[in-house]
């Protein structure tokens, strides 16, 4: 078993707001992230897959194919978009770093040939990242 | 859904690696330039990892504002721009980054809003240390 990690980047806008809370509570819990005009980040995505090395190709997965899957499933949907307003899963789920990692897992699971999705890591910035390893609640 | 949240903090501190249990020659032999009597310093970077269920309403493992406030009061204000050897934890311990990692784990374990998983301390860009607590889990990071 070997682990292979591919990075991708996307730049998106978001904000944090719970509709059933009043403004005071939203500001108190989310601080400046509650600005409804939004703000943005350069996100870095690291997708780690686990698998066996093919004895002929020497690959766990074809990196070009993995790159294309990340582009199609994630980057083309998230990049230069407002996550709350333009990405369907965040209409009903707060686009926190934790939830973005879970959403990307759900977008990728079962779509990578010959390898098992091991970890999705999402950096919102260099000093903050979330990891998701799959699994139910 | 269980997710892992990691946050990185920075502080600058001096230290000297030295133990009274060795004579001066052995200290110099074991610790090399780190035994310089006048000390030296590093820009430390601490990555702390917590796990927990993602709150369905806030989308968070824990509120970063709460974690940042805890880190500022309990870690940064205690360690930043200090000499580690003067801190009580290092009174009877060598101020290696291994021992620093264990102390940082002990402190962050007192943050009760999520489950502490791991402390990762970079002493320089070439040296880093991980501590997963006494019952070191076999989690593959």
Q: What can be said about this structure in brief?
A:
The complex is a heterodimer of chains A (137) and B (141). Chain A has four helices and five strands.
Secondary structure layout plus pairing:
The complex is a heterodimer of chains A (137) and B (141).
Chain A: E1 2-14, H1 23-30, E2 39-51, H2 63-78, E3 81-82, H3 83-86, H4 97-108, E4 116-125, E5 128-132
Parallel strand pairs in A: 1-3
Antiparallel strand pairs in A: 1-2, 2-4, 4-5
Chain B: E1 2-15, H1 24-31, E2 40-53, H2 64-79, E3 82-83, H3 97-108, E4 115-124, E5 127-131
Parallel strand pairs in B: 1-3
Antiparallel strand pairs in B: 1-2, 2-4, 4-5
Strand content of chain A: 25-35%
Q: What is the β-strand count of chain B?
A: 5
Q: Runs of chain A with pLDDT <50, length 5+?
A: none
The overall pLDDT of chain A, averaged over residues, is 95
Rg estimate of chain B, integer Å: 17 Å
Portion of residues in helices of chain A? 25-40%
Question: Which descriptors apply to this entry?
Answer:
heterodimer; A: 137 residues; alpha+beta; 5-stranded mixed sheet; 4 helices; 5 strands; B: 141 residues; 26% helix
Summarize the structure in words:
The complex is a heterodimer of chains A (137) and B (141). Chain A is an alpha+beta fold and 137 residues long. Helix content of chain A is 29%, strand content 31%. A five-stranded mixed beta sheet of chain A has the order 3-1-2-4-5. The two termini of chain A are 27 Å apart. The mean pLDDT of chain A is 95. Chain B has 141 residues and is α+β, with helices and mostly antiparallel strands. Chain B contains three helices and five strands, in the order βαβαβαββ. Chain B has helices spanning 24-31, 64-79, 97-108; strands at residues 2-15, 40-53, 82-83, 115-124, 127-131. Chain B has a five-stranded mixed beta sheet with strand order 3-1-2-4-5. In chain B, a hairpin with a 2-residue loop joins strand 4 (115-124) and strand 5. Chain B is elongated and about 60 Å long. The model of chain B has no long low-confidence stretch (mean pLDDT 94). The interface between A and B is medium-sized, with 26 and 21 residues.
């Amino acid at each position: 078993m070997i682990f292979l990690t591919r990075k991708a980047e996307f730049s998106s806008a978001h904000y944090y707001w719970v509709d059933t809370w009043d403004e005071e509570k939203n500001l108190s819990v989310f601080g400046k992230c509650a600005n409804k005009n939004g703000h943005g980040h350069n996100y870095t995505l690291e997708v780690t897959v686990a698998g066996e090395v093919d004895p002929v190709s020497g690959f766990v997965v074809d990196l070009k194919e993995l790159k294309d899957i990340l582009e199609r499933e994630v980057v083309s949907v998230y990049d230069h978009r407002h996550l709350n307003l333009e990405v369907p899963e965040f209409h009903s789920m707060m686009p926190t770093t934790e939830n973005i990692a879970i959403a990307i897992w759900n977008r990728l699971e079962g779509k990578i040939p010959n390898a098992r999705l091991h970890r999705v890591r999402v950096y919102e910035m260099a000093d903050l990242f979330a990891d998701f390893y799959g699994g139910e609640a | 859904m269980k997710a892992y949240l990691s946050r990185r903090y920075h502080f600058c501190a001096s230290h000297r690696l030295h133990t009274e249990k060795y004579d001066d020659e052995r200290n110099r032999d074991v610790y090399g330039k780190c035994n310089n009597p006048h000390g030296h310093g590093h820009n430390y970077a601490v990555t702390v990892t917590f796990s927990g269920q993602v709150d369905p309403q806030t989308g968070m493992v824990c509120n970063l504002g709460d974690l940042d406030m805890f880190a500022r009061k309990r870690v940064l204000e205690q360690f930043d721009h200090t000499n580690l050897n003067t801190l009580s934890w290092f009174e009877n311990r060598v101020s290696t980054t291994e021992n620093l990692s264990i102390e940082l784990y002990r402190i962050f374990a007192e943050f009760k809003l999520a489950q502490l998983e791991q402390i990762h301390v970079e002493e320089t860009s070439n040296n880093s240390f991980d501590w997963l607590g006494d019952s070191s889990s076999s989690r593959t990071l």
